[in-house]
Structures are given as structure tokens and as C-alpha cells.
Design goal:
single chain; about 110 residues; mainly alpha; Four Helix Bundle (Hemerythrin (Met), subunit A); about 70% helix; about 0% strand; binds flavin-adenine dinucleotide
């Protein structure tokens, strides 16, 4: 089976980076594809207990794909739910761009 921690780090990197560079004003095609990407994870993600948690989370908190700021915030909150479940520190969602897009300002 895959290494769940390494898979998780790689997947979060992909998802947060993709959200950070998602358009401010996505086309309906881009929005539809982002929804497909997110909704495919509970079906395909190769960690079955992670996938079922994610399916539940998507049901309770439908993704906001209206633009990069909203999507990045939505994803940060979902990642924080996983952090909390695993007993990890919560991430400050105001720092999402600094972490995944712009880098530190100084
Ligand atoms: P990670 O949690 O992988 O985070 C990587 C980096 O992202 C951090 O170093 C930090 O810089 C940044 N970061 C942290 N939190 C946030 C945030 N909220 N917003 C933005 N950036 C942030 N593991 C399990 O054991 N059980 C599960 O049920 C489970 N479910 C998962 C569901 C999904 C959808 C994914 C992608 C992963 C899941 N994992 C699960 C894996 C788990 O989330 C971690 O990836 C893994 O434990 C490695 O953790 P880490 O401490 O190295 O950092």
C-alpha cells in the first residue's frame, strides 16, 4: 500500500498549489473541472479511510470554486479538519498564499 504520509504531503502540495494559481475569475469550464477534480478524490484516492472522510467532508462543505481566494480558503479549512483529526496544529489560513504562492514577504 502507498505511504499515507508521503501521499498526503504530495497531494496537499498539488491541491494547495493548484488552488493558489486557480483564476480569480474562472470560466464555467474551469469551475466544472475543478469540481470534477475534487469530487473524484473520494472515489480514487488510494487511502480508503482518507477517501471516505473526504467524501463526508465534501458532502457537508461543498467546494467553493468561484475563484482562487475562496477556493484556497475552502481547501485550507478542509486540510485543517484533517490536521485536527490527526492531532496536528491548525494552519493559519491567512498564510495560504505565502505558503503556496508568493513565499515569505521579507
Ligand atoms: P501535511 O498535513 O501533509 O501538510 C503539508 C504542508 O502543508 C505542511 O507542512 C504545511 O506547510 C501546509 N499546511 C498544513 N495545513 C495546511 C492548511 N490547512 N492549509 C494550507 N496549507 C497547510 N492521513 C491520515 O492518517 N488519516 C486521514 O484520514 C487522512 N486523510 C487525508 C485526506 C486528504 C484529502 C489528504 C490529501 C491527506 C490525508 N491524510 C490523512 C494525510 C495527512 O493529511 C498528511 O498529509 C500526512 O499526515 C503528512 O502530514 P505532514 O505533517 O507532513 O503535513
Amino acid at each position: 500500500p502507498p505511504d499515507v504520509e508521503q501521499l498526503g504531503r504530495a497531494t496537499w502540495t498539488f491541491l494547495h498549489t493548484t488552488a493558489a494559481y486557480y483564476p480569480d475569475r474562472p470560466t464555467s469550464w474551469q469551475r466544472a473541472n475543478m469540481l470534477n477534480l475534487l469530487h473524484s478524490l473520494p472515489v480514487l484516492y488510494p487511502c480508503s479511510h482518507c477517501a471516505s472522510h473526504l467524501g463526508e467532508t465534501l458532502r457537508i462543505n461543498p467546494p467553493d470554486v468561484s475563484g482562487r481566494v475562496a477556493l484556497s480558503r475552502w481547501l485550507c479549512e478542509r486540510h485543517n479538519e484533517v490536521n485536527e483529526r490527526l492531532g496536528k496544529d491548525k494552519f493559519n489560513c491567512a498564510k495560504t498564499d505565502e505558503r503556496w504562492k508568493d513565499g515569505p514577504s521579507d
